[in-house]
Input
Amino acid sequence: MIFIFGYHPITKRIGPTEERECANCHNSKHWLLHKRTYFISVFFIPLIPTRQEYFVSCPVCNFREELIREDFKDMAPLAQLNREAVERDMSEEEYNRRLEQL
Ligand SMILES: [Zn+2]
Output
């Protein structure tokens, strides 16, 4: 029997973070927070997570900066709230109320 093993990343976009200027393209935009997990896969099915990377990227040029896990954890709640606000029609009142709870 032949097993086909692989090793590949799956990147999850958490959401937009605070606005900042990009050192590469100099646009001021809301950078995007990401979590990338590397998996060992068998028959192209990701089975075993091995390591994780965290980073923010410029939405204009994709320039990115690596983050340590603690910084990622600090930024994730705001990024998730921002993603929800963008994806569905969240009222400003609800957004502000949830922002205060972070
Ligand atoms: Zn940029």
About this structure: The pocket of zinc ion is lined by residues 22, 24-25, 27, 58, 60-61, 63 (CB under 6 Å). Residues 57 and 64 are 4 Å apart (CA to CA). The two ends are 52 Å apart (CA to CA). The chain is about 30% helix and 50% strand.
